[in-house]
Design brief:
alpha/beta; Dna Ligase, domain 1; Nucleotidyltransferase, domain 5; 32% strand; globular
Length: 408
C-alpha cells in the first residue's frame, strides 16, 4: 500500500501512549487499520518528566501498532497538550502599494504580520489558525485569492507554548528514528472527528478530558475562537478516590471505571460496593454515596474551572454555542458527567466519539481514542491541500536544524 495513503497519529498522554494507524479512503474519509498502545510512564499532567522512560513507552506502542497492522511506521503526527499552552486572537494587516489581484504571497504576509507580537521569552508559536479574511472593508471573505484589492486583513487564532516542553515530545520520537510530520494541539485533533462542520458553524465547545489534562476548543462560524488546557483530568479523580477511601491507585482506578458516577450525592443510588480480596489487597466494602461524592466534587471543579477560563477570555463565548458541548476523552465514559456539565455550563451536552471513520469498530466507538484518531483525520485534510510550513520547521529554526524532516 502506498505510504501516502497511510497516516499515523501518536498521542503521548498522561495515562497511555496511543498509536492509531489509518488508511485514506476514496471518499476522503479514513479507515482505522489498528491501534497500538501501552500505559504511560514518565509523564505528569501531559508533560514529560522522564525522557528515557517515555521514549521506551513510545517504542512499545509503535511496535504494538506495527504488529497489529503489518504496517512499517516511519512517519507520525504528534499531539501536544499541557497547561503551559496559551492562546489569543489577533488580526494581521497587509496594505498593497496599489490595487491588484491578491496573491499567495499576500496571504503569507498578512499571517506573518498577525504574529508580530511579543510572546513570553520561553514560548514559541504552535498554531496560527485562520478565522476570516477581510478585503477593502468587505468582511468574512472566504478566499481572497485573485480578487482585486488593496487592504488585506485576516483574523487568526494563535496558540503558543513553552519551547522546551514542546521539543521534549519531539526528542522522544526522533530518538526512535521516526519522521515527525507535524505537531498538533490535542483538542484541535479531537475536534476533527467528534464534531461536524454544521456544529462548527453554529458554535460548539469540544471538551477532551484525559488522564492529566482537560483540553478544550470553541468553534463558531466555522472557525476556532478560543482554546485552552486545564491541568486537571481523570488521574486526579482516581487519586482523590485513593486518598479518600484509602485504596491503592490501581483499585481506585478500577472502582472509578466500573462503579463511578459524577451524579450529585443527593441523587446517588446508595448501597455498598464489595471489593474482593486480591493478592496484596484485603477486600473491603465501599459506600457508594461516598464514592459518588468524591467523584462529583472533582468533576464539578473541572467544569467550574473550565467555565471560569472561558469567561475570562473576555467575550460571551458560551453564548455562541448553538450546538452546545461535546465531551470526549477517557473520562467521557464516566456516568453522569454529561448531566453535571450541562448544569454547570448551562448548555446541552453530549458525549461524543469519533464520527465518519471506518475500520476497527471498538476503536472509534471509544472516546479515549478521539485525539489519536483525530490526528489521522487532520493529516488527511492537511496533506490533501498544499501544506504551509509546519510546526517542525518552526521549531527547527531555533535548534540548528536538529528536527529537519528527512526526505522521503
Amino acid at each position: 500500500m502506498p505510504s501516502e495513503q497511510i497516516f499515523v497519529g501518536l498521542e503521548i498522554g498522561t495515562t497511555k501512549i496511543c498509536v492509531i494507524v489509518a488508511e485514506s479512503r476514496a471518499d476522503d474519509q479514513i479507515s482505522i487499520l489498528g491501534v497500538g498502545e501501552t500505559p504511560s510512564r514518565g509523564i505528569r499532567k501531559g508533560e514529560i518528566v522522564d525522557m528515557a522512560t517515555v521514549t521506551e513507552c513510545v517504542r512499545e506502542a509503535i511496535v504494538d501498532a506495527e504488529e497489529k497492522t503489518n504496517v512499517e511506521i516511519g512517519n507520525v503526527w504528534v499531539a501536544i497538550t499541557g497547561a503551559h499552552l496559551r492562546s489569543f486572537n489577533n488580526r494581521g494587516t497587509h496594505t498593497l502599494p496599489a490595487p491588484r489581484q491578491i496573491e499567495q504571497a499576500d496571504l503569507n504576509m498578512v499571517q506573518t504580520n498577525a504574529k508580530e507580537i511579543a510572546l513570553p521569552p520561553p514560548n514559541i508559536f504552535l498554531h496560527t489558525i485562520l478565522q476570516a479574511y477581510h478585503l477593502d472593508g468587505n468582511r468574512n471573505v472566504i478566499d481572497p485569492l485573485e480578487s482585486e484589492g488593496m487592504q488585506l486583513e485576516a483574523d487568526f487564532h494563535i496558540v503558543h507554548g513553552i519551547k522546551t516542553r514542546i521539543t521534549n515530545h519531539l526528542r522522544c520520537v526522533e530518538a526512535l528514528n521516526l519522521e515527525i510530520e507535524d505537531v498538533v494541539l490535542s483538542s484541535l485533533a479531537s475536534a476533527q472527528v467528534v464534531v461536524t462542520q454544521h456544529q462548527k458553524d453554529i458554535g460548539v465547545l469540544v471538551v477532551d478530558i484525559g488522564g492529566g489534562t482537560t483540553d478544550y476548543l470553541i468553534y463558531h462560524d466555522g472557525a476556532v475562537r478560543h482554546s485552552g488546557v486545564l491541568a486537571l483530568g481523570g488521574d486526579h479523580i482516581t487519586n482523590d478516590i485513593s486518598v479518600g477511601l484509602k485504596l491503592p491507585i490501581a483499585r481506585a482506578e478500577m472502582l472509578k471505571i466500573q462503579e463511578g458516577s459524577a451524579t450529585p450525592p443527593e441523587n446517588s443510588e446508595g448501597g455498598v460496593i464489595t471489593l474482593k480480596n486480591d493478592p496484596g489487597f484485603l477486600g473491603c466494602d465501599i459506600d457508594r454515596r461516598s464514592l459518588d461524592t468524591i467523584i462529583h466534587c472533582r468533576v464539578r471543579e473541572i467544569f467550574e474551572l473550565l467555565r471560569r477560563d472561558i469567561e475570562n477570555a473576555g467575550s460571551d463565548l458560551l453564548g455562541l454555542l448553538g450546538a452546545g458541548v461535546m465531551i470526549t476523552g477517557g473520562c467521557a465514559k464516566l456516568r453522569g458527567i454529561a448531566g453535571l456539565a450541562s448544569e454547570l455550563l448551562d448548555q446541552t451536552v453530549q458525549v461524543s466519539t469519533a464520527r465518519n471513520v471506518g475500520g476497527a469498530l471498538q476503536t472509534f466507538e471509544n472516546p479515549q481514542y478521539s485525539t489519536a484518531i483525530g490526528l489521522t483525520k487532520y493529516a488527511r485534510l492537511i496533506t490533501k491541500d498544499t501544506r504551509p510550513e509546519g510546526m517542525l520547521e518552526r521549531i527547527a529554526q531555533g535548534f540548528g536544524g536538529i528536527f529537519k524532516r528527512r526526505s522521503r
